[in-house]
Amino acid sequence: MIVDRPIPFEKRTKLRIPLFSTPVQAGFPSPADDHLDKSLDLNEHLVSNPASTFFVKAKGDSMRDAGITCGDILIVDRSITPKDKQIVVAMLDGEFTVKRLRKKKGQVLLVAENNSFEPIEITSEQELVIWGVVTFVIHQPK
Amino acid sequence: MKFALVDCNNFYCSCERVFNPKLIGVPVVVLSNNDGCVIARSEEVKKLGIKMGTPAFQNQEMFSKNGVQVFSSNYALYGDMSARVMKTLRTMVEHMEVYSIDEAFLALEDSQGALFAKELRARVRQWTGIPVSVGIGPTKTLAKIANRYAKKNVQFNGVFDLTVGEPDEILSKIECEDIWGIGRRTAAKLAKANITTALNLKNADVPWVRHELGVVGERIVRELNGISCLELEELPPLKKGIASARSFGHQVESLAEIEEALATYIARIGEKLRGQHLLASRMSVFVETNYFKPEQPQYESSAQGTFMNPTNQTPELISKGLDLLRKIYRPGFKYKKTGAFVTNLVDEESVQMTLFENQDQKHRMALQKAVDVLNKRLGRNVVRYGSMGVDEAWGMRQERKSKCYTTRWNELLVASA
Question: pLDDT tens across A62-115, in order?
Fold first, then answer.
């Protein structure tokens, strides 16, 4: 059986030892040689826990005012325990949805960030599972 | 020190459920390559009495009558989810052995018992969505038994610790065949000597066991007695070779079609070699007909070859593979399977200096890198070598594969906003 190796979104690059650019005998060394630094890796900034982080695509514009538009890629971390006011990916009645989680006086609501959408009040018959907490939104400007 | 065995529950089915809430609470099966037979079952399916290995095609009607959701195997997804589970476990223990795609042995401190196992279980569930069972024992063999016991008895909520209390009562409920390392044939041999349970085997005469089952059997008896003989194997053994072989979706006769299939498998080998910075020195190629159709003429053959310079470049690998294939191909047979295997692997760095100094090699490597980058970004085999063909008539049957939610940008999970 062949198991395809996954492509995790952690850094896969090999460690390269930087070469000093200036030959020793060529006189004055480059002033930059003392300040060599590795390049920036976006994963370091966006993914603090690779094991529990998933990318999810948003469809629809109910979260427009929170800066999430149709087609954006959400970075979702499942290791964060969801709290009031966080934006979450939730499983509700067999569907995935992105909303702001609100907990008020024992009531749980999924609130849209767009006037034309009503908040969803979770009833006791409904099954709500918070799938993960949205930590970043990757958005391409128009 | 003691051991824990962490085992993902119905792993492939659980992976499918993480990304598809409609599958929760309904029967789910995952099929083998080519959608041949059942290789993973959810609890609901086990209750329906559907066995492992049930052929899929003949049972379509029964599946749909029972509302069974059927999936082709999606190894890209399962492999990624497995890596996430293992990574999560590593945040909680220092020493562990990844035993299979869905199992790991952990070394626990004496103070770490059922409570720790519960935390472990909860973390894996929250971070990855995968439910696991944990068995704890003074040896790996007993940890395996504890795990099995936790799974079979729902009242334990997936955690059982054999280091607490008297294990003999539990061992008396475990059949020999279900002990790690004891196969069906060995179990039959033991049964003749009236050894039918793990407790019987634990109390068996050690010299007799050594005589009948060799040192492996003796080790199992010691492990059942709580004497640890099997250590954690933390480092995976060095790769000796890489294989890529699969059955055709249907039987194939023409050389051209087999060539296409083989070239595609070899391209996979090339990707794997380059991903691990290895070079292959030898390659072997095989073809075979379908043994399960004895009424048809049968043929199988293989051929081996050596690379003058060890390589991981797909064109060189394919060209060697096709040469070998042409030596063993005989017309007039209905072929079921082909594949290639590369061995004598060496580290890229160790030969790089001499091998890649000429300009031509450098250009070829750059081209290969570009091909790999494109395929990684656009999907496997979007950029392909001519010999791989384009229509893949020979390809795997995978009619019900879920999306590669975690390894393809264009197949991400979608949530409505």
Answer: 999 999 999 999 999 999 999 999 999 999 988 999 999 999 888 999 999 999
Given CB atoms, is B57 within the 8 Å cutoff of chain A?
no
Q: For residue B33, give how far its alpha carbon lies from the nearest alpha carbon of chain A (Å).
A: 8
- Rounded distance, CA B81 to CA B78, Å? 5
Cα–Cα distance for residue pair B271/B385, rounded to 1 Å: 13
In chain B, what are the domains?
Answer: 2-161 (3.30.70.270), 168-224 (1.10.150.20), 241-388 (3.30.1490.100)
Which one of A78, A120, A134, A135 makes the best mutation probe of the B interface by having the most chain B beta carbons within 10 Å? A78
How much is the ipTM here?
Answer: 0.78
Q: Which of B101, B243, B414 sits opposite A57 (nearest CB)?
A: B414
CB contact under 8 Å between B417 and A2, yes or no, is no
Distances (CA, A) of B384 to B272, B318, B362: 15, 12, 20
Q: What is the pTM of this model?
A: 0.72
CATH fold label, A50-138: Umud Fragment, subunit A (2.10.109)
Q: Is A62 a catalytic residue?
A: yes
Contact status of A131 with chain B (Cβ, < 8 Å) = yes
Q: Does B417 touch chain A (CB under 8 A)?
A: yes
pLDDT value for B250: 82
Per-residue DSSP letters for A17-41?
PPPPSS-GGGSSPPTTGGG--PPP-
pLDDT in tens, B76-125: 899 999 999 999 999 999 999 998 899 999 999 999 999 999 999 999 99
pLDDT digits (tens, 9 = 90+) for B21-45: 999 999 999 998 778 889 999 999 9
Q: What is the pLDDT at residue B10?
A: 96
Name which residue leads in pLDDT, B128 or B366: B128
CB contact under 8 A, B417 and A70: yes
Q: Across the interface, do B84 and A61 touch by the CB < 8 Å criterion?
A: no
Q: Is B106 exposed, middle or buried (0-12, 13-18, 19+ CB in 10 A)?
A: buried
Would you give the DSSP letter of residue B59?
A: G
Chain B positions in Cβ-Cβ contact with residue A61 (cut-off 8 Å): 417
CA distance A30 to A28: 7
Give B-chain residues touching A97 at CB under 8 angstroms: 415-417
% of chain B surpassing 90 pLDDT? 61
Q: How far apart are CA B409 and CA B160, in angstroms?
A: 40
> Which of these, B116, B96, B118, B72, lies nearest to B5 by C-alpha position?
B96
